[in-house]
Structures are given as structure tokens and as C-alpha cells.
Amino acid sequence: MIRVLLVDDQPLLRSGFRALLDLEDDIEVVAEAADGREGLELVRTHLPDIALMDIRMPVVDGIEATRRIAADPALSRVHIVILTNYGMDEYVLDALRAGAAGFLVKDIVPEDFLHAVRVAARGDALLAPSITRKLINRYVTQTPATAGTDALGELTGREREAVGLVARGLSNDEIAGRMVISPMTAKTHVNRAMTKLRARDRAQLVVLAYESGLVTPGAG
Fold it and tell me: How many C-beta atoms surround the C-beta of residue 122 within 10 A?
């Protein structure tokens, strides 16, 4: 069972998301919060698999709530998915840097929304990779590519290749096909890279790959 916490200051949106999720046999909404501070408290209480987190909220915003959750080792199993009104929201990258596992645009169609929740629960792939690449192309390139350069030197050639493919939005199965290895080996390369780079999840791995210059925005 995938346990979900909804954190959004708009009751109507929370109700809409809950109505969709409650229809699914493998998903349970464990609680709802109207701001980031309440969301943080409920994350600690319920330890959900997924926290669907709005960015702009009163008291504590979604970015700060995400940062606090990601910094707490006791909450390492919680995958934070940011909810945004715009695919190019300037705050989304800040949320990814803070520790979010990915993000969803609020006008996503129901089928894609449910699929994304399941994907996030697996921790298998970054959500909305095409939109994420556009956002990274817009914002990451405004700063010098220096972050994490030293840590990248610890990666093997195959691990660097796997990280580059993760940054382009590929799943483990797709990485395996591209690298001509088994999906388990692909997952191992990705996990080892995450450990060496101290990345909380694949989303942070993507951000680091672009910020360090390992992957160039717009590259195939």
C-alpha cells in the first residue's frame, strides 16, 4: 500500500487529489495539511511513502518544509513530490535542490497523476523528465558548473554514464538498454553514484549532474 500525505493550502485541490487517490486499491491518503509546518508534523507522525507538497503556502512554504524533511535521517523513506501550477515555476529547482524527488503540474491528467505517484513511490525515475530538463536548461545554466566536481571524480566511467542517462530522464530499464547491461546492474550503478555523491534520490542526482557540468542542458 502506497501511503500519501497531501499538503496544499487550497482545500478544493486537496479534495480533488484525495478523490482520485481514494479510488485506487493500492493507495491510501493518510492525512492532509494546509501549510508546510502542519505537513512537517504529519510527515513525522505518519511516515508516508509520498508527500505531495505545494510550493506556495502560508506559515512554512513547500521548499522549507521539503528542506527540513530531507535533512532528517528519520524521514529518509519519505519521497517529496512538489505540486506546482506551472511547469516552468522558478521555485521548482529550489525544491529539487532542497530534496524533492520530483514535481507535478497541477493540471496533469488523472491517469498520469496516478502513474506518477506510483513511480515516485518506487523511487525508480524522476517525474516529468521532459519538463524538468526544460527547467534545468533555464535555471541551472545561469550559474557556473562547479558544484560537486570533486565528488564526480569518485565515480567510475560506467557510473558517470548511468548518471548522465538518469539526468536525461531515463528509467533503470531504459538505462540498461542503452548501456547493454541488466536492469539490476543499471540500478546498482545508479545507487552507487547516489551514495558517492551523497544524493538523497534521483532528483538530486539529476540536479548535481547538470550543475557539475557532467551533463549539458539540451544535449541528447
Answer: 12
Q: How far is CA 156 from CA 51, 162, 174, 184, 189, in A?
A: 33, 10, 20, 17, 9
The pTM of the full predicted model, rounded to 2 decimals, is 0.72
Please write down the HEC assignment for all residues of 172-208.
HHHHHHHHCCCHHHHHHHHHHHHHHHCCCCHHHHHHH
2-7 vs 50-54, strand pairing mode: parallel
User: Structural domains in the chain?
Assistant: 2-126 (3.40.50.2300), 138-212 (1.10.10.10)
| First-last CA distance in the chain | 37
Q: What is the pLDDT of residues 145-201, one digit of tens each?
A: 445 556 678 899 999 999 988 887 788 888 999 999 999 999 999 999 988 888 877
Instruction: Write the DSSP assignment of 132-186 as a string of letters.
Output: HHHHHHHHGGGS-S-TTHHHHTTS-HHHHHHHHHHHTT--HHHHHHHHTS-HHHH
- Which grid coordinates belong to 135? 527547467
The helix (run of H) or strand (run of E) holding residue 213 is none
**What's the one-letter identity of residue 124?**
D
Most confident of 80-84, 88-92, 130-134: 80-84
CA–CA separation, 215 and 208 (whole Å): 9
C-alpha cell, 134: 526544460
Euclidean distance between CA atoms 202 and 102, whole angstroms: 9
